[in-house]
């Protein structure tokens, strides 16, 4: 039986160089650039407002400033309550007599605005706390010492920043409504 000699031709060398270049590029992007996906991170203090609609008015006494807030699903820390606002719950209805939309109050229910403050991780794309992304419109499941509920983020403000990052006009939303702050 004959022994075959290992012969290397030009195409084999080019294929090996191409594979080595691809591996080097992937390593550079994910390891040596230090960015791992391209997003830079920073830690900031964020104040965000969560709107809860249709909260039974009996629950008003269960919410307090200073309450610790956790994600009701993942149990991650989401911050502390720094402000509470309660207004009458109003729901749009069609008035067939006048042909207009009206907003009567809903007895026994409140619209609650909970302001939460937390140290969050800020990337060039989002804010994150306790594994939960925080952005205007995000549905958040909240668990506090005596209440577990869900609501939607309606406002974001970095503490120390001049203006709200993204906001709805909560003052206009509550105009004409009886408002209590605790």
Notable characteristics:
182 residues; 6-stranded antiparallel beta barrel; 15% helix; disordered C terminus
Please give a structural write-up.
It contains two helices and twelve strands. The protein starts with 9 loop residues before the first helix and ends with a strand. The C terminus is likely disordered.
Helix content: 10-25%
Largest sheet: 6 strands, antiparallel, barrel
Quaternary form:
single chain
**pLDDT average, as an integer?**
83
Low-confidence stretches: 167-182
Shape, please? elongated
Strand adjacency order, main sheet = 1-6-3-2-9-10
Number of helices: 2
Overall structural class, as computed from helix and strand content, comes to: mainly beta
Strand percentage: over 45%
What is the H/E order? HEEEEEEEEEEEHE
Tell how many strands the DSSP assignment holds.
Answer: 12
Short account of what is shown:
Helices cover 15% and strands 47% of the residues.
Secondary-structure map:
Blueprint: H1 10-32, E1 41-56, E2 68-71, E3 77-90, E4 93-95, E5 100-102, E6 105-123, E7 127-129, E8 132-134, E9 139-143, E10 148-158, E11 166-167, H2 170-173, E12 179-181
Antiparallel strand pairs: 1-6, 1-10, 2-3, 2-9, 3-6, 3-12, 4-5, 6-7, 7-8, 9-10, 10-11
């Amino acid at each position: 039986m004959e022994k075959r000699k290992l012969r290397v031709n030009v195409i084999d060398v080019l294929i090996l160089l191409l594979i080595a270049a691809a591996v080097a590029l992937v390593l550079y992007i994910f390891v040596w650039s230090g960015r791992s996906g391209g997003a830079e991170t920073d830690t900031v203090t964020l104040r965000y407002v969560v709107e809860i609609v249709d909260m039974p008015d009996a629950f008003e006494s269960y919410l307090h400033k200073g309450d610790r807030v956790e994600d009701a699903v993942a149990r991650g820390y989401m911050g502390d309550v720094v402000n509470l606002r309660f207004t009458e719950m109003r729901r749009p209805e069609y008035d067939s007599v006048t042909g207009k939309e009206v907003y009567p109050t809903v007895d026994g229910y409140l619209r609650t605005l909970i302001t939460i403050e937390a140290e969050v991780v800020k990337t060039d794309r989002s804010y994150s706390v306790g594994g939960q992304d925080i952005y205007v419109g995000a549905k958040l499941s909240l668990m506090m010492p005596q209440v577990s509920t869900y609501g939607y983020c309606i406002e974001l403000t970095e503490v120390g920043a001049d203006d709200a990052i993204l906001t709805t006009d909560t003052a206009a939303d509550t105009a004409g409504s009886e408002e209590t702050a605790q």
